[in-house]
Design goal:
seven-stranded antiparallel β-sheet; globular; single chain; 20% helix; 27% strand; 13 helices; ten-stranded mixed β-sheet; alpha+beta
Length: 627
Protein backbone atom coordinates (compact mmCIF):
# COMPACT_ATOMS: atom_id res chain seq x y z
CA UNK A 1 0.00 0.00 0.00
CA UNK A 2 1.98 2.98 -1.25
CA UNK A 3 -0.48 5.57 -0.03
CA UNK A 4 -3.99 5.81 1.38
CA UNK A 5 -6.33 7.45 -1.08
CA UNK A 6 -9.98 8.08 -1.59
CA UNK A 7 -12.62 7.08 0.93
CA UNK A 8 -11.21 4.07 2.76
CA UNK A 9 -13.51 2.73 5.50
CA UNK A 10 -11.74 3.00 8.86
CA UNK A 11 -12.39 -0.57 9.93
CA UNK A 12 -10.88 -1.89 6.72
CA UNK A 13 -7.93 0.46 7.04
CA UNK A 14 -7.26 -0.61 10.62
CA UNK A 15 -7.28 -4.23 9.52
CA UNK A 16 -4.80 -3.46 6.76
CA UNK A 17 -2.47 -1.56 9.04
CA UNK A 18 -2.65 -3.67 12.18
CA UNK A 19 -3.30 -7.15 10.83
CA UNK A 20 -1.75 -6.94 7.39
CA UNK A 21 0.03 -9.95 5.85
CA UNK A 22 3.28 -8.82 4.23
CA UNK A 23 5.26 -10.75 1.63
CA UNK A 24 6.21 -14.37 2.21
CA UNK A 25 9.84 -13.35 2.48
CA UNK A 26 9.09 -11.45 5.69
CA UNK A 27 7.38 -14.48 7.23
CA UNK A 28 10.28 -16.68 6.21
CA UNK A 29 12.69 -14.28 7.90
CA UNK A 30 10.71 -14.40 11.17
CA UNK A 31 10.59 -18.21 11.15
CA UNK A 32 14.30 -18.43 10.39
CA UNK A 33 15.38 -16.07 13.14
CA UNK A 34 12.77 -16.40 15.92
CA UNK A 35 11.24 -19.15 18.01
CA UNK A 36 7.62 -18.67 19.02
CA UNK A 37 6.21 -19.58 22.42
CA UNK A 38 2.68 -19.24 23.79
CA UNK A 39 2.01 -18.63 27.48
CA UNK A 40 -0.92 -18.03 29.79
CA UNK A 41 0.62 -15.45 32.09
CA UNK A 42 -0.97 -15.28 35.56
CA UNK A 43 -2.11 -11.93 36.91
CA UNK A 44 -2.23 -11.10 40.60
CA UNK A 45 -5.91 -12.11 40.85
CA UNK A 46 -5.29 -15.49 39.19
CA UNK A 47 -6.68 -14.59 35.74
CA UNK A 48 -4.35 -15.74 32.94
CA UNK A 49 -3.63 -13.66 29.86
CA UNK A 50 -2.72 -15.30 26.56
CA UNK A 51 0.65 -14.07 25.31
CA UNK A 52 2.59 -15.00 22.16
CA UNK A 53 6.33 -14.45 22.56
CA UNK A 54 8.92 -14.46 19.77
CA UNK A 55 12.52 -14.96 20.95
CA UNK A 56 15.63 -14.57 18.74
CA UNK A 57 17.28 -17.89 17.99
CA UNK A 58 20.69 -16.29 18.34
CA UNK A 59 21.39 -16.54 22.08
CA UNK A 60 24.87 -15.03 21.90
CA UNK A 61 23.30 -11.69 22.91
CA UNK A 62 20.57 -10.52 25.26
CA UNK A 63 17.65 -8.53 23.87
CA UNK A 64 15.09 -6.00 25.07
CA UNK A 65 11.42 -6.95 25.12
CA UNK A 66 8.87 -5.13 22.96
CA UNK A 67 5.34 -5.52 24.36
CA UNK A 68 2.05 -4.96 22.55
CA UNK A 69 -1.23 -5.44 24.48
CA UNK A 70 -4.34 -5.51 22.30
CA UNK A 71 -8.07 -6.27 22.31
CA UNK A 72 -7.91 -7.19 18.60
CA UNK A 73 -6.26 -10.60 18.88
CA UNK A 74 -2.66 -11.79 18.55
CA UNK A 75 -3.29 -14.16 15.62
CA UNK A 76 -2.07 -16.45 14.28
CA UNK A 77 -2.64 -18.79 17.21
CA UNK A 78 -0.59 -21.96 17.61
CA UNK A 79 3.10 -22.36 18.45
CA UNK A 80 3.90 -23.28 14.84
CA UNK A 81 1.95 -20.36 13.32
CA UNK A 82 4.09 -17.25 12.95
CA UNK A 83 3.31 -13.60 12.40
CA UNK A 84 4.50 -12.27 9.07
CA UNK A 85 6.44 -9.45 10.69
CA UNK A 86 7.35 -8.42 14.22
CA UNK A 87 7.39 -5.14 16.05
CA UNK A 88 6.25 -1.71 14.93
CA UNK A 89 8.21 -2.04 11.65
CA UNK A 90 10.68 -4.42 9.93
CA UNK A 91 13.88 -2.78 11.29
CA UNK A 92 12.98 -4.06 14.76
CA UNK A 93 12.98 -7.74 13.84
CA UNK A 94 16.19 -7.29 11.84
CA UNK A 95 17.93 -5.63 14.78
CA UNK A 96 16.88 -8.21 17.35
CA UNK A 97 14.28 -7.88 20.11
CA UNK A 98 12.05 -10.22 22.07
CA UNK A 99 8.47 -9.51 20.93
CA UNK A 100 5.48 -10.20 23.19
CA UNK A 101 1.88 -9.87 21.96
CA UNK A 102 -0.89 -10.19 24.52
CA UNK A 103 -4.67 -10.52 24.37
CA UNK A 104 -5.95 -8.18 27.06
CA UNK A 105 -8.21 -9.44 29.80
CA UNK A 106 -11.50 -10.81 28.47
CA UNK A 107 -10.58 -10.70 24.76
CA UNK A 108 -9.81 -13.58 22.38
CA UNK A 109 -7.78 -16.25 24.21
CA UNK A 110 -7.28 -14.47 27.54
CA UNK A 111 -9.33 -15.24 30.61
CA UNK A 112 -11.36 -12.75 32.61
CA UNK A 113 -13.99 -10.12 31.94
CA UNK A 114 -13.49 -7.41 29.34
CA UNK A 115 -14.26 -3.80 30.29
CA UNK A 116 -14.04 -0.99 27.73
CA UNK A 117 -11.40 1.56 28.78
CA UNK A 118 -11.30 -0.05 32.20
CA UNK A 119 -10.99 2.72 34.81
CA UNK A 120 -7.72 3.15 36.70
CA UNK A 121 -7.66 2.01 40.32
CA UNK A 122 -5.08 4.36 41.84
CA UNK A 123 -5.19 2.52 45.18
CA UNK A 124 -5.20 -1.27 45.18
CA UNK A 125 -5.69 -2.81 48.64
CA UNK A 126 -5.78 -6.46 47.60
CA UNK A 127 -5.04 -8.76 44.66
CA UNK A 128 -8.64 -8.65 43.45
CA UNK A 129 -8.38 -4.94 42.65
CA UNK A 130 -6.89 -4.86 39.18
CA UNK A 131 -6.77 -2.51 36.22
CA UNK A 132 -4.91 -2.37 32.92
CA UNK A 133 -1.92 -0.83 34.68
CA UNK A 134 -1.59 -3.76 37.06
CA UNK A 135 -2.04 -6.23 34.19
CA UNK A 136 0.79 -4.53 32.29
CA UNK A 137 2.97 -4.56 35.42
CA UNK A 138 2.32 -8.25 36.11
CA UNK A 139 2.94 -9.15 32.46
CA UNK A 140 6.27 -7.33 32.34
CA UNK A 141 7.34 -8.81 35.65
CA UNK A 142 6.62 -12.34 34.39
CA UNK A 143 8.31 -11.80 31.02
CA UNK A 144 11.51 -10.40 32.50
CA UNK A 145 11.74 -13.28 34.98
CA UNK A 146 10.69 -16.15 32.69
CA UNK A 147 11.73 -15.44 29.10
CA UNK A 148 15.34 -16.35 28.48
CA UNK A 149 17.72 -14.07 26.65
CA UNK A 150 16.18 -10.74 27.67
CA UNK A 151 18.28 -7.85 28.95
CA UNK A 152 15.79 -6.66 31.56
CA UNK A 153 14.62 -3.64 29.57
CA UNK A 154 11.12 -3.37 28.10
CA UNK A 155 9.42 -1.12 25.58
CA UNK A 156 5.69 -0.95 24.93
CA UNK A 157 3.87 0.41 21.91
CA UNK A 158 0.41 0.34 20.40
CA UNK A 159 -1.89 2.18 18.01
CA UNK A 160 -5.46 3.22 18.89
CA UNK A 161 -6.90 0.91 21.55
CA UNK A 162 -3.47 -0.74 21.97
CA UNK A 163 -2.24 2.84 22.39
CA UNK A 164 -4.59 3.19 25.36
CA UNK A 165 -3.11 0.02 26.88
CA UNK A 166 0.35 1.49 26.32
CA UNK A 167 -0.68 4.59 28.25
CA UNK A 168 -2.03 2.38 31.02
CA UNK A 169 1.33 0.63 31.23
CA UNK A 170 2.98 3.99 32.01
CA UNK A 171 0.91 4.43 35.20
CA UNK A 172 2.70 2.87 38.15
CA UNK A 173 5.05 1.36 35.59
CA UNK A 174 7.19 -1.70 36.23
CA UNK A 175 10.83 -0.64 36.76
CA UNK A 176 11.85 -2.62 33.66
CA UNK A 177 9.59 -0.53 31.42
CA UNK A 178 11.97 2.05 29.98
CA UNK A 179 10.23 3.29 26.81
CA UNK A 180 6.56 3.71 25.91
CA UNK A 181 4.95 4.91 22.71
CA UNK A 182 1.20 5.53 22.93
CA UNK A 183 0.20 6.08 19.31
CA UNK A 184 -3.26 7.53 18.62
CA UNK A 185 -4.24 6.48 22.15
CA UNK A 186 -7.65 6.92 23.70
CA UNK A 187 -7.56 9.62 26.37
CA UNK A 188 -11.21 10.59 26.93
CA UNK A 189 -14.20 9.12 25.09
CA UNK A 190 -16.56 11.99 25.92
CA UNK A 191 -14.38 15.06 25.43
CA UNK A 192 -12.66 14.30 22.14
CA UNK A 193 -11.79 10.72 21.20
CA UNK A 194 -13.78 8.33 19.02
CA UNK A 195 -17.39 8.44 20.19
CA UNK A 196 -17.80 12.07 21.25
CA UNK A 197 -16.35 15.49 20.49
CA UNK A 198 -17.32 18.08 23.11
CA UNK A 199 -20.29 15.91 24.02
CA UNK A 200 -21.60 15.40 20.46
CA UNK A 201 -21.95 11.74 19.45
CA UNK A 202 -19.97 10.62 16.40
CA UNK A 203 -22.78 8.41 15.18
CA UNK A 204 -21.40 6.62 12.12
CA UNK A 205 -18.15 5.69 13.86
CA UNK A 206 -19.75 4.55 17.13
CA UNK A 207 -22.44 2.52 15.36
CA UNK A 208 -20.07 0.72 13.01
CA UNK A 209 -17.36 -0.04 15.56
CA UNK A 210 -19.69 -1.25 18.28
CA UNK A 211 -21.72 -3.33 15.83
CA UNK A 212 -18.68 -5.58 15.50
CA UNK A 213 -16.54 -5.02 18.58
CA UNK A 214 -19.22 -4.56 21.20
CA UNK A 215 -20.76 -8.03 21.33
CA UNK A 216 -19.86 -10.19 24.33
CA UNK A 217 -17.27 -12.96 24.36
CA UNK A 218 -18.40 -15.48 26.99
CA UNK A 219 -15.28 -17.67 26.80
CA UNK A 220 -11.82 -17.66 25.19
CA UNK A 221 -11.96 -17.92 21.39
CA UNK A 222 -9.47 -17.62 18.55
CA UNK A 223 -11.96 -15.95 16.23
CA UNK A 224 -15.01 -13.77 16.81
CA UNK A 225 -18.28 -14.08 14.94
CA UNK A 226 -18.92 -11.22 12.52
CA UNK A 227 -21.79 -8.93 13.51
CA UNK A 228 -21.23 -5.93 11.23
CA UNK A 229 -24.28 -4.64 9.39
CA UNK A 230 -23.91 -4.46 5.63
CA UNK A 231 -26.68 -1.94 4.87
CA UNK A 232 -27.89 -4.07 1.99
CA UNK A 233 -31.14 -2.14 1.94
CA UNK A 234 -29.46 1.31 1.99
CA UNK A 235 -25.79 1.42 1.00
CA UNK A 236 -26.01 5.23 1.03
CA UNK A 237 -24.99 6.06 4.59
CA UNK A 238 -26.80 9.40 4.62
CA UNK A 239 -30.09 7.68 3.79
CA UNK A 240 -29.43 4.77 6.16
CA UNK A 241 -28.80 6.91 9.22
CA UNK A 242 -31.53 9.42 8.37
CA UNK A 243 -34.08 6.62 8.06
CA UNK A 244 -32.76 5.16 11.31
CA UNK A 245 -34.49 8.03 13.08
CA UNK A 246 -33.93 8.72 16.79
CA UNK A 247 -30.98 7.10 18.59
CA UNK A 248 -33.27 4.76 20.50
CA UNK A 249 -33.83 2.85 17.24
CA UNK A 250 -30.19 1.68 17.15
CA UNK A 251 -30.69 -0.86 19.91
CA UNK A 252 -34.30 -1.60 19.04
CA UNK A 253 -33.59 -2.41 15.38
CA UNK A 254 -30.00 -3.69 15.36
CA UNK A 255 -28.17 -4.32 18.62
CA UNK A 256 -31.19 -5.76 20.47
CA UNK A 257 -29.58 -5.55 23.90
CA UNK A 258 -26.44 -7.44 22.88
CA UNK A 259 -24.04 -4.46 22.81
CA UNK A 260 -23.79 -3.46 26.45
CA UNK A 261 -21.43 -0.54 25.99
CA UNK A 262 -23.74 1.18 23.51
CA UNK A 263 -26.55 1.15 26.04
CA UNK A 264 -24.17 2.29 28.77
CA UNK A 265 -23.16 5.27 26.60
CA UNK A 266 -26.78 6.11 25.93
CA UNK A 267 -27.43 5.95 29.68
CA UNK A 268 -24.73 8.53 30.38
CA UNK A 269 -25.51 11.49 28.11
CA UNK A 270 -23.49 13.94 30.23
CA UNK A 271 -19.91 13.96 31.51
CA UNK A 272 -20.71 12.24 34.81
CA UNK A 273 -18.56 10.13 37.14
CA UNK A 274 -18.92 7.12 34.83
CA UNK A 275 -17.20 9.02 32.01
CA UNK A 276 -14.73 10.80 34.28
CA UNK A 277 -13.48 7.46 35.59
CA UNK A 278 -12.49 6.64 32.00
CA UNK A 279 -10.38 9.77 31.54
CA UNK A 280 -6.76 8.66 31.72
CA UNK A 281 -5.22 12.14 31.92
CA UNK A 282 -5.47 12.76 35.70
CA UNK A 283 -3.51 9.55 36.35
CA UNK A 284 -0.46 10.40 34.24
CA UNK A 285 1.73 11.34 37.19
CA UNK A 286 5.11 10.00 38.25
CA UNK A 287 5.64 8.59 34.74
CA UNK A 288 9.10 6.99 34.62
CA UNK A 289 9.46 5.52 31.08
CA UNK A 290 10.53 7.76 28.21
CA UNK A 291 7.41 8.59 26.18
CA UNK A 292 7.05 8.93 22.40
CA UNK A 293 3.55 10.31 21.68
CA UNK A 294 2.50 9.80 18.07
CA UNK A 295 -0.52 11.03 16.15
CA UNK A 296 -1.84 12.08 12.75
CA UNK A 297 -3.15 15.52 11.84
CA UNK A 298 -5.97 13.81 9.91
CA UNK A 299 -6.79 11.06 12.40
CA UNK A 300 -10.58 10.86 12.40
CA UNK A 301 -10.61 8.65 15.51
CA UNK A 302 -7.93 9.78 17.92
CA UNK A 303 -6.43 13.17 17.21
CA UNK A 304 -7.39 14.26 20.73
CA UNK A 305 -5.61 11.35 22.45
CA UNK A 306 -1.93 11.85 21.50
CA UNK A 307 -2.03 15.61 21.97
CA UNK A 308 -3.77 15.40 25.33
CA UNK A 309 -1.60 12.53 26.54
CA UNK A 310 1.51 14.52 25.64
CA UNK A 311 0.19 17.57 27.49
CA UNK A 312 -0.80 15.60 30.59
CA UNK A 313 2.59 13.87 30.86
CA UNK A 314 4.40 17.15 30.17
CA UNK A 315 2.50 19.03 32.86
CA UNK A 316 2.94 16.48 35.66
CA UNK A 317 6.37 14.97 34.89
CA UNK A 318 8.97 17.70 34.28
CA UNK A 319 11.93 15.30 34.46
CA UNK A 320 10.56 12.66 32.09
CA UNK A 321 11.60 12.34 28.46
CA UNK A 322 8.29 13.13 26.77
CA UNK A 323 8.22 13.98 23.07
CA UNK A 324 5.54 14.54 20.44
CA UNK A 325 5.42 13.47 16.79
CA UNK A 326 2.55 14.56 14.54
CA UNK A 327 2.47 13.73 10.84
CA UNK A 328 0.05 14.14 7.90
CA UNK A 329 -1.64 10.82 8.54
CA UNK A 330 -5.03 9.30 9.14
CA UNK A 331 -5.57 6.75 11.90
CA UNK A 332 -2.48 4.51 12.08
CA UNK A 333 -1.22 5.82 8.73
CA UNK A 334 2.36 5.97 10.01
CA UNK A 335 2.52 2.20 10.55
CA UNK A 336 2.30 1.12 6.91
CA UNK A 337 2.82 2.46 3.43
CA UNK A 338 4.98 5.43 2.55
CA UNK A 339 2.70 8.27 3.69
CA UNK A 340 3.35 10.21 0.47
CA UNK A 341 -0.30 11.29 0.06
CA UNK A 342 -3.68 11.31 1.72
CA UNK A 343 -7.02 11.67 0.00
CA UNK A 344 -6.51 14.12 -2.87
CA UNK A 345 -3.35 15.73 -1.46
CA UNK A 346 0.27 14.72 -2.15
CA UNK A 347 2.89 15.56 0.49
CA UNK A 348 5.86 15.10 -1.86
CA UNK A 349 7.78 12.94 0.61
CA UNK A 350 7.51 9.49 2.17
CA UNK A 351 6.35 10.78 5.54
CA UNK A 352 5.46 7.43 7.13
CA UNK A 353 8.63 5.69 6.01
CA UNK A 354 10.63 8.64 7.35
CA UNK A 355 8.92 8.34 10.74
CA UNK A 356 9.51 4.60 11.06
CA UNK A 357 13.16 4.75 10.06
CA UNK A 358 14.26 8.05 11.58
CA UNK A 359 12.06 8.56 14.64
CA UNK A 360 10.37 5.43 16.01
CA UNK A 361 13.13 2.84 15.56
CA UNK A 362 15.97 5.10 16.85
CA UNK A 363 13.85 6.05 19.88
CA UNK A 364 13.36 2.47 21.06
CA UNK A 365 16.79 1.27 20.05
CA UNK A 366 18.58 4.08 21.85
CA UNK A 367 16.70 3.60 25.11
CA UNK A 368 16.41 -0.18 25.17
CA UNK A 369 19.86 -1.03 23.80
CA UNK A 370 21.81 2.03 24.87
CA UNK A 371 22.03 1.09 28.54
CA UNK A 372 21.64 3.52 31.41
CA UNK A 373 23.70 6.11 29.54
CA UNK A 374 21.50 6.04 26.45
CA UNK A 375 21.54 9.11 24.26
CA UNK A 376 18.19 10.92 24.61
CA UNK A 377 18.67 13.78 22.21
CA UNK A 378 15.10 13.80 20.92
CA UNK A 379 13.45 17.02 19.74
CA UNK A 380 10.57 17.98 22.01
CA UNK A 381 8.20 18.16 19.05
CA UNK A 382 8.60 16.94 15.49
CA UNK A 383 5.62 17.92 13.40
CA UNK A 384 4.89 17.84 9.70
CA UNK A 385 3.82 21.27 8.52
CA UNK A 386 1.12 20.85 5.91
CA UNK A 387 0.84 23.44 3.18
CA UNK A 388 4.62 23.69 2.90
CA UNK A 389 4.97 19.89 3.33
CA UNK A 390 8.04 19.82 5.54
CA UNK A 391 9.09 18.40 8.91
CA UNK A 392 9.71 20.99 11.63
CA UNK A 393 11.45 20.55 14.99
CA UNK A 394 10.61 22.64 18.06
CA UNK A 395 11.77 22.89 21.67
CA UNK A 396 8.18 23.18 22.89
CA UNK A 397 4.67 22.57 21.63
CA UNK A 398 3.13 24.88 20.71
CA UNK A 399 6.33 26.65 19.67
CA UNK A 400 7.30 29.47 22.02
CA UNK A 401 7.80 31.82 19.07
CA UNK A 402 4.11 31.60 18.08
CA UNK A 403 2.06 34.75 18.65
CA UNK A 404 -1.70 35.13 19.22
CA UNK A 405 -3.81 36.20 16.26
CA UNK A 406 -7.56 36.45 15.74
CA UNK A 407 -9.65 35.62 12.71
CA UNK A 408 -12.76 37.78 13.07
CA UNK A 409 -15.99 36.98 11.23
CA UNK A 410 -17.00 40.18 9.46
CA UNK A 411 -19.87 41.53 7.38
CA UNK A 412 -20.08 40.49 3.76
CA UNK A 413 -18.76 37.00 4.40
CA UNK A 414 -15.27 38.24 5.23
CA UNK A 415 -12.60 37.03 7.61
CA UNK A 416 -10.69 39.98 9.04
CA UNK A 417 -7.53 40.12 11.11
CA UNK A 418 -8.84 43.28 12.82
CA UNK A 419 -11.75 43.61 15.27
CA UNK A 420 -15.06 44.57 13.64
CA UNK A 421 -16.18 48.18 13.58
CA UNK A 422 -19.79 49.31 14.06
CA UNK A 423 -21.87 48.47 10.99
CA UNK A 424 -25.18 49.93 9.83
CA UNK A 425 -26.52 46.54 8.79
CA UNK A 426 -27.72 43.61 10.92
CA UNK A 427 -25.04 42.59 13.46
CA UNK A 428 -25.43 38.92 12.58
CA UNK A 429 -25.68 36.34 9.81
CA UNK A 430 -28.34 33.64 9.98
CA UNK A 431 -29.41 30.34 8.50
CA UNK A 432 -32.10 27.74 9.09
CA UNK A 433 -30.93 24.39 10.42
CA UNK A 434 -33.25 21.50 9.61
CA UNK A 435 -32.53 18.09 11.23
CA UNK A 436 -34.60 16.50 8.45
CA UNK A 437 -32.10 17.75 5.84
CA UNK A 438 -28.76 17.83 7.65
CA UNK A 439 -25.50 19.01 6.07
CA UNK A 440 -23.45 15.96 4.97
CA UNK A 441 -19.92 15.65 6.30
CA UNK A 442 -18.47 14.67 2.93
CA UNK A 443 -19.58 14.95 -0.67
CA UNK A 444 -20.04 11.22 -1.40
CA UNK A 445 -21.55 9.57 1.66
CA UNK A 446 -20.53 6.06 2.63
CA UNK A 447 -22.15 4.25 5.54
CA UNK A 448 -19.08 4.75 7.72
CA UNK A 449 -16.95 7.55 9.09
CA UNK A 450 -14.79 7.99 6.01
CA UNK A 451 -11.15 7.78 7.05
CA UNK A 452 -9.87 10.80 5.15
CA UNK A 453 -12.80 13.20 5.56
CA UNK A 454 -10.54 15.60 7.48
CA UNK A 455 -8.63 16.61 4.34
CA UNK A 456 -11.42 16.61 1.76
CA UNK A 457 -12.83 19.40 -0.43
CA UNK A 458 -15.53 21.50 1.30
CA UNK A 459 -17.07 23.20 -1.74
CA UNK A 460 -20.16 20.99 -1.51
CA UNK A 461 -20.87 22.42 1.97
CA UNK A 462 -20.02 26.04 1.13
CA UNK A 463 -22.80 26.01 -1.49
CA UNK A 464 -25.55 25.09 0.98
CA UNK A 465 -27.86 27.76 2.41
CA UNK A 466 -27.49 26.31 5.94
CA UNK A 467 -23.71 26.87 6.02
CA UNK A 468 -22.23 30.30 6.70
CA UNK A 469 -19.03 31.08 4.80
CA UNK A 470 -16.41 33.71 5.63
CA UNK A 471 -13.05 34.17 3.92
CA UNK A 472 -10.08 36.50 3.60
CA UNK A 473 -8.82 38.17 0.48
CA UNK A 474 -5.97 36.24 -1.19
CA UNK A 475 -3.04 36.32 1.23
CA UNK A 476 -0.14 38.56 0.31
CA UNK A 477 2.30 36.28 2.16
CA UNK A 478 2.38 32.89 3.83
CA UNK A 479 0.44 32.47 7.09
CA UNK A 480 1.57 29.63 9.38
CA UNK A 481 -0.74 28.52 12.21
CA UNK A 482 0.38 26.17 14.97
CA UNK A 483 -1.19 24.70 18.09
CA UNK A 484 -4.82 24.59 19.22
CA UNK A 485 -7.57 26.83 17.85
CA UNK A 486 -9.87 28.60 20.28
CA UNK A 487 -13.37 29.08 18.88
CA UNK A 488 -15.15 32.10 20.36
CA UNK A 489 -18.70 32.39 19.01
CA UNK A 490 -21.59 34.65 19.93
CA UNK A 491 -24.74 32.96 18.69
CA UNK A 492 -28.44 32.53 19.19
CA UNK A 493 -30.95 29.85 18.25
CA UNK A 494 -34.73 29.82 18.03
CA UNK A 495 -34.61 26.39 19.70
CA UNK A 496 -33.38 25.35 23.15
CA UNK A 497 -30.35 23.32 22.04
CA UNK A 498 -28.07 23.32 19.01
CA UNK A 499 -24.80 21.96 17.69
CA UNK A 500 -22.19 24.35 16.35
CA UNK A 501 -19.71 23.05 13.80
CA UNK A 502 -16.76 25.24 12.84
CA UNK A 503 -14.38 24.46 9.99
CA UNK A 504 -11.09 26.13 9.10
CA UNK A 505 -10.49 25.76 5.36
CA UNK A 506 -7.57 26.45 3.00
CA UNK A 507 -8.95 27.85 -0.30
CA UNK A 508 -6.63 27.34 -3.26
CA UNK A 509 -6.40 30.06 -5.93
CA UNK A 510 -8.77 29.85 -8.88
CA UNK A 511 -5.79 29.65 -11.24
CA UNK A 512 -3.84 27.11 -9.16
CA UNK A 513 -1.93 24.83 -11.52
CA UNK A 514 -1.48 21.83 -9.25
CA UNK A 515 -3.35 18.51 -9.44
CA UNK A 516 -4.71 15.99 -6.96
CA UNK A 517 -3.17 12.54 -6.67
CA UNK A 518 -5.88 11.41 -9.11
CA UNK A 519 -4.84 14.09 -11.61
CA UNK A 520 -7.85 16.31 -10.96
CA UNK A 521 -7.36 20.10 -10.81
CA UNK A 522 -6.78 21.66 -7.38
CA UNK A 523 -7.86 25.10 -8.58
CA UNK A 524 -10.47 26.55 -6.17
CA UNK A 525 -10.09 23.49 -3.90
CA UNK A 526 -11.38 24.08 -0.36
CA UNK A 527 -9.24 21.79 1.76
CA UNK A 528 -10.37 21.14 5.33
CA UNK A 529 -7.57 22.06 7.75
CA UNK A 530 -9.48 21.52 10.97
CA UNK A 531 -13.12 21.12 11.88
CA UNK A 532 -14.97 20.22 15.05
CA UNK A 533 -18.27 20.40 16.88
CA UNK A 534 -19.66 21.32 20.26
CA UNK A 535 -23.06 20.24 21.51
CA UNK A 536 -24.30 23.65 22.55
CA UNK A 537 -25.85 22.47 25.81
CA UNK A 538 -22.29 21.83 27.03
CA UNK A 539 -21.04 25.38 26.43
CA UNK A 540 -20.69 25.87 30.21
CA UNK A 541 -18.94 22.54 30.71
CA UNK A 542 -19.44 18.92 29.76
CA UNK A 543 -20.88 18.17 33.20
CA UNK A 544 -23.26 21.13 33.17
CA UNK A 545 -25.77 20.93 30.27
CA UNK A 546 -27.89 24.04 29.93
CA UNK A 547 -30.71 24.93 27.51
CA UNK A 548 -30.49 28.00 25.30
CA UNK A 549 -32.97 30.79 25.80
CA UNK A 550 -34.58 31.10 22.36
CA UNK A 551 -33.31 34.13 20.49
CA UNK A 552 -30.92 35.16 23.28
CA UNK A 553 -27.33 35.93 22.17
CA UNK A 554 -25.05 33.48 23.97
CA UNK A 555 -21.31 32.86 24.10
CA UNK A 556 -20.26 29.41 22.86
CA UNK A 557 -16.56 28.65 23.22
CA UNK A 558 -14.58 25.49 22.58
CA UNK A 559 -11.15 24.29 21.50
CA UNK A 560 -10.41 22.72 18.15
CA UNK A 561 -7.42 20.41 18.08
CA UNK A 562 -3.97 21.59 17.07
CA UNK A 563 -2.74 22.29 13.57
CA UNK A 564 0.62 22.93 11.92
CA UNK A 565 -0.42 24.39 8.59
CA UNK A 566 0.75 27.13 6.26
CA UNK A 567 -1.76 28.98 4.10
CA UNK A 568 0.42 29.89 1.12
CA UNK A 569 0.43 33.32 -0.43
CA UNK A 570 -2.44 33.64 -2.92
CA UNK A 571 -4.60 31.23 -0.89
CA UNK A 572 -7.54 32.35 1.22
CA UNK A 573 -8.41 31.49 4.82
CA UNK A 574 -12.03 30.36 5.05
CA UNK A 575 -14.27 29.68 8.05
CA UNK A 576 -17.49 27.70 7.66
CA UNK A 577 -20.17 27.47 10.36
CA UNK A 578 -23.11 25.06 10.41
CA UNK A 579 -25.27 23.12 12.87
CA UNK A 580 -25.42 19.62 11.33
CA UNK A 581 -22.61 17.33 10.12
CA UNK A 582 -24.32 14.10 9.14
CA UNK A 583 -24.02 11.19 9.69
CA UNK A 584 -20.62 11.92 11.22
CA UNK A 585 -22.43 13.55 14.14
CA UNK A 586 -25.87 12.46 15.30
CA UNK A 587 -28.69 14.93 14.78
CA UNK A 588 -29.40 17.37 17.59
CA UNK A 589 -33.22 17.75 17.86
CA UNK A 590 -32.55 21.45 18.54
CA UNK A 591 -34.74 20.98 21.56
CA UNK A 592 -33.32 20.48 25.06
CA UNK A 593 -34.26 16.83 25.61
CA UNK A 594 -32.38 13.61 26.37
CA UNK A 595 -31.21 12.96 22.82
CA UNK A 596 -30.79 9.22 23.40
CA UNK A 597 -34.52 9.08 24.22
CA UNK A 598 -35.75 11.77 21.81
CA UNK A 599 -38.97 11.12 19.91
CA UNK A 600 -39.41 11.95 16.21
CA UNK A 601 -41.59 14.94 17.07
CA UNK A 602 -38.78 16.46 19.16
CA UNK A 603 -36.72 17.23 16.05
CA UNK A 604 -37.41 20.76 14.83
CA UNK A 605 -36.07 23.46 12.55
CA UNK A 606 -34.22 26.34 14.15
CA UNK A 607 -33.10 29.79 13.05
CA UNK A 608 -29.42 30.15 13.91
CA UNK A 609 -27.64 33.47 14.18
CA UNK A 610 -23.93 34.16 14.42
CA UNK A 611 -23.17 37.64 15.76
CA UNK A 612 -20.17 39.54 14.44
CA UNK A 613 -20.52 43.15 15.54
CA UNK A 614 -18.08 45.11 17.72
CA UNK A 615 -19.98 44.32 20.94
CA UNK A 616 -20.23 40.58 20.28
CA UNK A 617 -17.48 39.54 17.87
CA UNK A 618 -17.27 35.91 16.78
CA UNK A 619 -13.76 34.77 16.01
CA UNK A 620 -11.13 32.07 15.95
CA UNK A 621 -8.14 32.71 18.19
CA UNK A 622 -5.06 31.10 16.69
CA UNK A 623 -1.29 31.08 17.08
CA UNK A 624 0.78 32.45 14.22
CA UNK A 625 4.36 31.25 13.77
CA UNK A 626 6.57 33.92 12.20
CA UNK A 627 8.20 32.76 8.98
Amino acid sequence: MSSVRSRVPLAALAALLLLAVPAAAEEDYVKAHYTKYEFLIPMRDGVRLFTAVYVPKDRSLTYPIMLNRTPYGVAPYGADAYRSELGPSPPFSRDGFVFAYQDVRGRYMSEGEYVNVRPVRPIKTDAAEIDESSDAYDTIDWLVKNVGGNNGRVGQWGISYPGFYTTMGMIGAHPALKASSPQAPIADWFAGDDWHHNGALFLAHAFNFMSGFGHPRPEPVKRYATHSYMYNDKPDGYAFFLDLGPLSNVDARYFKGDVAFWNEMMGHPNYDDWWKARDVRPHLKDVKPAVLNVGGWYDAENLFGPLETYRAVEAANPGTTNVLVMGPWLHGGWAGGDGAALGPIAFNSDTAAYYRENIEFPFFRSILKGGDQDSRHFPEARVFETGTNQWREFDAWPPEAAKPKSLFLAAGGRVSFSPPEPDAGPPYDEYVSDPAKPVPFIDAISNRMTADYMIQDQRFAARRPDVLVYQTEPLAEDLTLVGPIQVKLNVSTSGTDSDWIVKLVDVFPDDFAGKTVDDEPLASFQGLVRGDVIRGRFRDGLSNPQPFQPGQPTAVNFTMRDVAHTFRSGHRVMVQIQSTWFPLVDRNPQKFVDIAAAAPEDFQKAVQRVFRDASAPSRLEVLELPR
